[in-house]
Amino acid sequence: MIKQWLSILLVVCLAMAMTACGQKAKGDYDVEVIRPDHSSAPAPSKPNKEDTSDAEPTATPQAGYLVGPLDDIEITTSLADYSAPSNSELKNREQLAFFTQNGKTGVIDFEGNIVIPAEKNVHWCPVCGITNEGETEIYNEKGEVIGSGGHGATELGLYYDADKKSLYVEGEFGILQPWNANTLTTLEPMIVSVVTISDTTQDDPNWKGYSLQQEDHPVSISDATGYMLFKPDGTALNGEVYQEVQRASVGTFAVKKDGLWGYVNQETGEQLVNFLYLDARPFCGDRAAVKTETGWGYISLAGAKKTSMTFLKAASAYDGKAWVKTSDGWGVIKLSDYPFKKG
Fold it and tell me: Of 84, 119, 147, which one is at a domain's C-terminal end?
């Protein structure tokens, strides 16, 4: 009798064990953490539409996305919008973007990987590339610290006096020097503030420390009335004065005039794309993000619309991919999946 009961008990235990091994409880998944606060675990099923308090984010892209969409970060700038840093080992910056989270800035790539966490609060330096708040660390494209800042170099102020028709470079101690090839060495066209420079005195309470050629010649500089583009030899690119200019377009400049954006050739000053857009990003390759009345989208160098113009926001594209924002958040898309359809 005892043996019979033991046999029955053994069969029951084996059945329970096989059930436990062959089926996981609801919500019990193998989880791979692929970036802070996101994992490969699917969101747990909701008991009803009203009870969503236990829902968790999922890293599985929605249809139409390569990554995301993500609603806990804000993409601010593609690093493709910057010129290559003058002294850095940073590579493939076109595949990286700055994002903000909890008021601080980090770096993310096109795969959705956090390369540099927002806690580092990084920013762009034209000399170092990606550097932290105190500029004590310089990072490469993998988020590795490759050195420290403290280079002491800053972007020089460039001014065009509209009355004197003269170009000046701001040197040490606020002393303005007439531009010449020995004053500033550059291979790219220069974005120059259009101002009026007037004589003043050091006793003037509004004097801000600027001097013309010598410390004993104090001058005042008016607020910029616009911006001009100058060639590396110091001659005007096309003589046009723009409201704003987007730096670092490869081959082109995004320029704003009469409230609208267009594009000019950076070598000839020729207008490539007419002033049609409410906002614009620099071209990266043959695509640029622009804003129309219906939203953001992408155009070609010829000005043709290449995607739908319905995104809430958009960053510069690279290799056919881009970060865009919809009501669901920011995600990476393939531009070819969102063709522009007339009518």
Answer: 147
Q: How far apart are CA 301 and CA 222, in angstroms?
A: 36
- CA–CA distance, 193 with 229 (Å, rounded to integer): 9
Task: Tell me the β-bridge partners of 190.
Answer: 230
Which of 241, 263, 286 is the C-terminal boundary of a domain?
Answer: 241
- Would you say residue 264 lies in a domain? no
State the average pLDDT over residues 173-193. 80
Question: Coil, strand, or helix at residue 242?
Answer: strand
At residue 330, the pLDDT reads: 97
- Domains contained in the chain, number: 2
Instruction: Read off the amino acid at residue 213.
Output: Q
- In order of 271, 336, 343, the CA distances from 339 in angstroms are 25, 6, 13
Task: Report the run of H or E that residue 10 belongs to, with start and end.
Answer: helix 2-22
Q: How far is residue 337's CA from residue 325's CA, in Å, rounded to a whole number?
A: 15
How is residue 28 annotated by DSSP? -
Q: Which two tokens mark 1?
A: 């009798």
Query: What is the span of the domain harbouring residue 220?
Result: 156-241
Minimal CA–CA distance to 141: which of 190, 188, 84? 84
- Asked whether residue 46 carries a pLDDT value surpassing 80, the answer given is no
265 Rama sector, left if φ>0, alpha if ψ -120 to 50, beta otherwise: beta
Q: What is the value of pTM for the model shown? A: 0.76
Task: Give phi and psi for 210, each to the nearest 5.
Answer: -85, 145
**Dihedral-angle region of residue 294 (phi above 0 means left; psi in -120 to 50 means alpha; beta otherwise):** alpha
Say if CB 95 and CB 316 are below 8 A apart. no
Residue 122 main-chain phi, psi, to 5 deg: -85, 170
Q: How many CB atoms lie within 10 A of CB 104?
A: 14
The dihedrals phi and psi of 280, each to the nearest 5 degrees, come to -160, 155
Specify whether the CB–CB gap between 261 and 274 falls below 8 A.
no
Q: Are residues 209 and 143 in the same domain?
A: no
Within a domain: 7: no
